[in-house]
Amino acid sequence: MGGTKAGDSTRRARGGRTGDGLAPDDPAALRSVAIVGPMAAGKTTLVEELLACAGAIPRAGSVTAGTTVTDHDPDARRQQRSVAPAVASLTHRNMKINLVDTPGCPDFLGEVRAGLRAADAVLFVVGTADAADGAAAPTSALLAECRRAGLPAVLVLSRLDHQRADEAAALATCREVAAGSGEVLVPVTRTERAADGTVTAVRPLLDPEGPDPTAEDTAEDEDDLRRELVETLIEQSEDEALLESWISGEPVSLAALRTDLATAVARRSLVPVAGVCAPAGAGLETLLDLVVDAVPPPTAHPPLPAHAPDGAGHDPVAPDPDGPLVAEVVHTGTDAQGSRVSLVRVFSGRLTPDTTLNVCADPLRVPAPRDGEDPTGAADAGHGARETVRVNRVYAPLGATLREVPWCVAGDVCALTRLGAVATGDTLCGAEDLVGLDGWELPEALLPVAVTAADRSAQDAMARGLARLAATETTLRVERNEDTHQIVLWCTGEAHADVVLARLRAAGATVEVTDVAVPERETVAGPASGLGRHVKQSGGHGQFAVCRIEIEPLPRGSGVEFVDRIVGGVIPRAYIPGVEKGVRAQLEAGVTPGRPVVDVRVTLVDGKAHSVDSSDQAFQTAGSLAVKEAVAAAGTIVMERLYEVEVTVDDSQLGTVLGDLASRHGRVVGTEPAGPGSTLVRAEVPEQALLRYAVDLRSLTSGTASFTRRFSRYEPVAGG
Length: 720
Prior knowledge:
CATH superfamily of the domain at 19-208 and 268-300: P-loop containing nucleotide triphosphate hydrolases
Distance between the termini: 71 Å
Oligomer: single chain
CATH architecture of the domain at 19-208 and 268-300: 3-Layer(aba) Sandwich
Radius of gyration: 32 Å
Number of strands: 36
GO molecular function, one term: GTPase activity
Shape: elongated
Region (Disordered): 1-26, 203-223, 299-321, 362-384
Helix content: 25-40%
Low-confidence stretches: 4-19, 378-384
CATH class of the domain at 19-208 and 268-300: Alpha Beta
Largest sheet: 7 strands, mixed
Protein name: Translation elongation factor 2 (EF-2/EF-G)
Structural class: alpha+beta
CATH topology of the domain at 19-208 and 268-300: Rossmann fold
Strand content: 25-35%
Pfam families: EFG_C, EFG_III, EFG_IV, GTP_EFTU
GO biological process, one term: ribosome disassembly
Strand order of the largest sheet: 3-4-2-5-6-10-7
C-alpha cells in the first residue's frame, strides 16, 4: 500500500481490507514494543535496520544524514537524536510489529513514558562499547522506568561491530544494575566473528533448524551459552515433567523450551539477551523472531485504571477487541504544514474511520488550552468529557508517512489527524461507555527559562505559539510570574528548552531568552516612625492629609498588620481606611521597586485633616509617603525564597550531592534510605541556587539522581 506524508492530501487505500497486514483483525497478530535505551546506544539505527530487514523501507537511513524514518522531526534532525516517540510498523511472519522509538536523552523522559504507554513490551538497547563509558548510570535509570511501567523486556546488545565492543562487559553491567529486581538476564543468541573480529553472524541458541540445544558435540563457548539458557528456562519452568526429564538426562523438547521462554518473559522473571549488529544485518531477523515468539500479545496487557468523566470510579479497561472503544492519545506532534497528528493506542474495541468519539481527559491533569486560549492562565483541572471529535481516517504510521488502514483493533497503535483541541493524555471513547484512562505520571519540569517578546505583535505570536506547544509538549509548564511579571517556560533540561524555543520561533514568535528574575521580599531591621504629609494648594479645592505611623518587624510569615491608634478624632474615621490602603499598596509595591515589604506591623498614631481639602485619596497618598519614610529610617533586610528540596541519589554519589548542596548555601535537614543503594536527602536551598539545579544535578550524577522542590518560606539572604 502506498503511503503519504502527514499533511499531504490522502486517499483511502484501495488494497486489501486488512491494509496489507497493517490492520490485523486479531490482537494475537500484533506486537507493540518500545525501543528504549541510553543515548547513542543505536536505537534509531536499530529501528531503521529492522524496517529494512522486514521490507517496510527499501534501505536503512542514517541519523547523521537526517534520513531516518523515526527521527523525522526537524528538531530531532538538528540535534541528531530522538526528541519524541515515533512509531514505525512492519510485518514479520504475518505478525504486525509496532516499533515505538523513544529518546535516550534524560531531558525527554516524559516522551519515554509516553512510548512505554503505547507498548506491551520493551526492547532495551545497550551499546556493547558503552560499558567502559559510564553506561551503568543511564541504563539503571531507564531500566527503572521500564520496571515502573510493568512491561516485559528483551535486552538488545547493539553495536557489535564497534572496535571496543565487549558483549560480556555490557551484559555484566546490565546484570549489575538489574540486581535485586528478580529478573534473570540470559543470552538467547551467540555472536560469530571472523579471525579479524568482524561480526559474521548472530545465531539463536534455540534455533529450530539448528542443532539440539541439549547436545554435547558443539563448540565449548556455544555449549556454555546453551547450557546456561536451558538450565535457566528449566529452573523458571512450571512443567515438572520437563525438569524431571532434564535431571534424568533425557532430551528436552525445543518447543517446550520456547514456550517456557515466552512464559517467563511474560511474567517478567526472565529477560532474554540478544545481540545485534545492525549495519551488518546480523541478528535482525533473529530479533524479529524473538519479538514474535517471546513477547506477549496485547491481550496480556494488564487492565488499566480508569475513571468516569466526573472523576468517579470506573472498572479498569481490559484489552478486549470486542469491548467498547477506549483509546488514548499518547503523543501529539505536527506535520510539515503545522497540523496536529495524534498517535493513538487503542486499548479496547476497534477504532474505525468516519466515527464520532467522545473526549475524556484525566481530571487530575490540567488540560491543554484550545487554540487562542492563554497558555499561562489557570485551567480547570476537572474538565472530564469536554467535547466530541470526528475521526475521518485511520492511519498506520511509518514515521511521518501515514498509510491509511480500515481499522485499528485493541492493542494496535495508529495515527489520527484533524482532532481539533484533543491533546496528549486525552481518552477517546464511544458514547455507550464514557470513560477516561488514568494518566501516566509526567516528570516535573524544573529548569526555568524566561522569554521576552520585542513588541505587541511578537507577544501575540508568542501566545499563539505557546498555546500550540501546550498541547504537544506535555512536560512543558508555562508560567506568568506574578512577582516578576516574566513569562517563564519550565522545561526538563537544556535539550528540551532548545526544542521548545526552536518550535516557538518556527511558529513565527520572535522571542529572546533573558535571565530568570527571582522574587525577593524585604522586612524592616527594627522599629521606626515616618511622617506622610500631602498638602497641595493651587487655588480652588486643594489636597490636605498628614499622618504619622510607626513600623516594627513581626515574626516570619506574619504578613502585614495595620493598627489604628488615633484618638481625639485628629483624623476622621472616614479617612483611616484610606491611610491603610495607601500603606498596604506601598508595602506591596515595595520601597525598593520589586521587593514587597512583609512581616511588619504599621501603627497609625497621629495626623491632621482639613475640613474642606482632605479626602480619602489624599490620605492614601499620605499613608504611602509615611511608610516610605519609616522603612527608610528602620533599614531593611532582604529576604529570599527558600525551598524544601528532596534529592534521591545513589549511595555512591551521596558525598558529591551533599557537597554541592553546601556550595549552594543549602542546609541539609535529614537523610534516610530510599531503597536498595540509594538515599533521600532533605535540604532547604535558596531559589537562586536552584535555577540550574536540574542541569547541574544531572551532570554531577550522570542522570541517576532526581529531585523535587517545594516553596517553604522567605528567609534573610545568606551573608546579607
